[in-house]
Design brief:
Number of strands: 7
Largest sheet: 7 strands, mixed
Distance between the termini: 28 Å
Number of domains: 2
CATH architecture of the largest domain: Alpha-Beta Barrel
Oligomer: single chain
Strand content: 15-25%
Low-confidence stretches: none
Strand order of the largest sheet: 1-2-3-4-5-6-7
CATH topology of the largest domain: TIM Barrel
Number of helices: 10
Order of helices and strands: EHEHEEHHHHHEHEHEH
CATH class of the largest domain: Alpha Beta
Length: about 280
C-alpha cells in the first residue's frame, strides 16, 4: 500500500485543486492520502464528493487532515491532525481564530507595504489565489507583491518583505502548539508534530506536548535524511508514539515539473498504525 499523509491543495498554499490531487494521487499509484491544508479542512469534503461522483472509492482513500500553524518561543511549529470530528466546537473555534489571524496579518502587511514602500496591493489580489474559504498566507502575499511590480519575483519578495526582519512584516498572532494538540485530541483527532527536523528543541518539545495529547511524530518527510528518519522513528518508539509520514506536497518541482506527491518512501505499516491509534482513542 502506497500512502502520503501530508498533502496541500488550493485551500491553502498548494497549487492543485482537491480533484486534481485525487487524480494525481491515483496516477502515481497511491492508495491513501491525507489532505492537510493549513488551518482549514475544506478540501476534504470536496475530494470526497469528487471520489463519489467519479466512483473512485476503490482506488483511493482520503483521510481527513489538517496542519495547524503555531508559535512557541519564536519557533514556528506545525501540528498535523488526523480524523478530527469537524463538528467539535473547540476545533471549529480554533480554525475560525486561525483564519481571522491570517486575515488580520495580511491586512496589516498590505497597509505597511503601501505606507512605507509605495507598493499597493489589494486584499482581493491575495484572496483570489486560494479556493473560497481557504487559508491565505505568506506565499500569497509574496506573489501579490511580485505581481504588483514590487519585486521582480517571489523569492525577492520573501527576501525583502516576508520575514521577521522586514519593516513591513507583521508576525501572525497564532495559537501555541500546546493549544493545537489539545484541541485536535479533544476533537477525537490524532495530533502529530510535523517535520520536526527544523526545530532544534524538538525532543524536549515533543515530550512536553505529550502531556496535552500528542500521539505521533512525522518521521518520514521529503526533507528528512535517512539518519533523520531513524532518529525520530527511534524517539517515537522510545516515547510510545506512532510514526507518520508524507511528501508535504505543494506543487510540482519548479525546475523540472516533477510531481513529488508520494515520491518519498513511507512504509505501509504507518497507515495501519495511524488507523489503529484512532480506533484505540475511540475505545478509550
Amino acid at each position: 500500500m502506497k500512502i502520503d499523509l501530508h498533502v496541500h491543495t488550493l485551500y491553502s498554499d498548494g497549487v492543485y485543486s482537491p480533484e486534481k490531487i485525487v487524480d494525481t494521487a491515483i496516477d502515481v499509484g497511491l492508495q491513501a492520502i491525507s489532505l492537510t491544508d493549513h488551518d482549514n479542512i475544506l478540501s476534504y469534503q470536496v475530494a470526497q464528493d469528487y471520489i463519489k461522483e467519479k466512483n473512485l472509492a476503490d482506488k483511493l482513500e482520503v483521510i481527513q487532515g489538517v496542519e495547524i500553524n503555531t508559535l512557541h518561543k519564536n519557533y514556528e511549529v506545525h501540528i498535523l491532525g488526523y480524523f478530527m470530528n469537524p463538528e467539535n466546537s473547540d476545533f471549529k473555534n480554533l480554525l475560525k481564530a486561525q483564519q481571522q489571524a491570517r486575515i488580520a496579518q495580511t491586512q496589516e502587511i498590505i497597509t505597511l507595504l503601501a505606507k512605507k514602500e509605495g507598493i499597493k496591493i489589494k486584499f482581493e489580489d491575495i484572496q483570489r489565489q486560494v479556493a473560497e474559504g481557504g487559508s491565505i498566507g505568506r506565499p500569497h502575499i509574496a506573489k501579490a507583491i511580485a505581481n504588483a511590480g514590487g519585486t521582480s519575483n517571489v523569492i525577492e519578495a520573501y527576501a525583502k518583505f516576508i520575514n521577521d526582519s522586514s519593516h513591513v512584516y507583521v508576525p501572525r498572532k497564532t495559537v501555541s502548539p500546546y493549544e493545537a494538540v489539545e484541541v485536535i485530541y479533544g476533537a477525537g483527532g490524532v495530533p502529530v508534530i510535523a517535520h520536526p527536523y527544523d526545530i532544534d528543541i524538538a525532543e524536549k518539545l515533543i515530550k512536553n506536548l505529550m502531556s496535552c495529547g500528542l500521539r505521533g511524530i512525522e518521521a518520514y518527510h521529503r526533507k528528512h535524511s535517512p539518519a533523520c528518519v531513524e532518529y525520530f522513528s527511534s524517539m517515537a518508539e522510545e516515547l510510545g508514539l506512532i510514526v507518520t509520514g508524507g511528501s508535504d506536497f505543494h506543487a510540482p518541482n519548479s525546475l523540472n515539473g516533477q510531481i513529488v506527491l508520494g515520491k518519498n518512501f513511507v512504509p505501509e505499516w504507518i497507515y495501519d498504525k495511524l488507523v489503529q491509534e484512532k480506533r484505540m482513542m475511540d475505545l478509550a
